[in-house]
Amino acid sequence: MRNLNRAFWGLMALVTLLWLFADLSVFQSSGFFAIRSLAVQYSGLLAMACMSVAMILATRPRWPERWLGGLDKMYRFHKWLGISALVLAIVHWLWTQAPKWAVGWGWLERPARAPRVPPENPVEALFAGLRHTAEGWGEWAFYAAAGLIVVALLERIPYRFFYRTHRFLAAAYLVLVFHAVVLTQFSYWASPLGIMLAILLAYGTWAAIVVLSRRVGRTRQVPGRIAALQYYPGVQALETTLDVGEGWPGHRPGQFAFAMSDPAEGAHPYTIASAWNEDERQITFITRALGDHTRRLPEKLHAGQVVKIEGPYGCFTFDDDRARQIWIGGGIGITPFIARMKYLARHASGQRPQIDLFHCTADVDDEALNKLQADAEAAGVRLHILIDSRDGRLDGARIRAMVPDWKEASLWFCGPVSFGDALRRDFAAQDFPIVERFHQELFAMR
């Protein structure tokens, strides 16, 4: 999370500093309409920077994943940027429209305009001729983008509808690129700000074309064929084992992949619940009925069905130098720990940390819990199963009581975000080094 904050505020600071360097008149401007002109440019630049980076991240690039902490963190950053772009675009729109309303209502007096001298630069003259078109198209693209971002943020809207509509943000973005290129103050293009903006807009345009053509992750997709299915009714979970082709590069325990069984529904991310074996070439997903799509999977999937797999992604891979680890899996968040236990059972040699695994669940399926217990015993992991109705809720004090040497451990959490955030705050209050040793997978892609 620290790197997400650095990336976000670093982007804001970089755009701000380059803008101040490009337009020193900001320190000399006086009068409302002069300030308004600067505010329109500044808010528009920030909004396009946020939207451009968000569009680039939508293509799931590999290069920033390690630094940002995994694709799950990249999607959190993508969400922050989308919300920021929406807020900044609204501010930009208000700076352009509100003064016009105030003039119409008689609250402001528009200053007299000096005669416009035709630009000598042919490119600047072209942009001047396109100004009215760029303003009109940009306003409608803003309305469309705002509506689509709101749809993306409302989790009550079915994923299928979100999947079908969200890519049209790329089309709105392309219109806003035209709007920005034409209406950005022409002198900015010869400055470092203009160079940075040109790179962002060009990269973002490429990303938008990839999104619109549905080619995101295409080079990392391989076909898989369902080999076995097992349903656990007590926890409403489906275990799906797939044979994957030679294109799959293998994965590390704790990573996830996108799986697509229905093109109309699109690809969904699932944590991989198996260790990789090059000889068997199989991966297992465990999905729980948490939404309209996952609820229908037991009816829609069948042995022999072909499923597209894309990945692997994620950095929740249990890598640290601690001799003690504490794992906490809430509900379906147990999945990455199952994969790690299977890996440890298969690679018995070598040093390994002492591990306590806490699994909290509101539902009970004896067969699933027995398999979990068997995996823990094979891996040498001490398992604590807590059923909400029987054992109450798990909190930091309970973990510390059951693991006396918790101060020496690293914590690995996967489960409901609110649960993880509560544990993070609890351990932070005990002076636990959260930044270095509290690892939380943010498995929420909307």
What order do the helices and strands come in, and which of them pair?
Layout lengths: L1 H21 L9 H26 L7 H4 L2 H34 L17 H32 L5 H8 L1 H16 L8 H21 L8 E12 L4 E8 L11 E5 L7 E4 L10 E7 L3 H9 L5 E8 L10 E7 L4 H12 L7 E8 L4 H14 L2 E6 H4 L4 H7 L7 E5 L2 H13 L4 H4 E3 L6
Parallel strand pairs: 7-8, 7-10, 8-9, 10-11
Antiparallel strand pairs: 1-2, 1-6, 2-5, 3-4, 3-6
Helix pairs in contact: 1-2, 2-4, 2-7, 2-8, 4-5, 5-7, 7-8, 10-11
What would you report as the Rg, rounded to the nearest angstrom?
26 Å
Class of secondary structure makeup: alpha/beta
- What CATH architecture of the largest domain would you give? Up-down Bundle
Rounded to the nearest angstrom, the distance between the terminal CA atoms is 17 Å
Give the number of helices: 15
Tell the overall outline: elongated
Helix content: 40-55%
Strand content: 15-25%
Strand arrangement, largest sheet?
A: 4-3-6-1-2-5
Strand count, sense and barrel status of the largest sheet are:
6 strands, antiparallel
Number of domains: 3
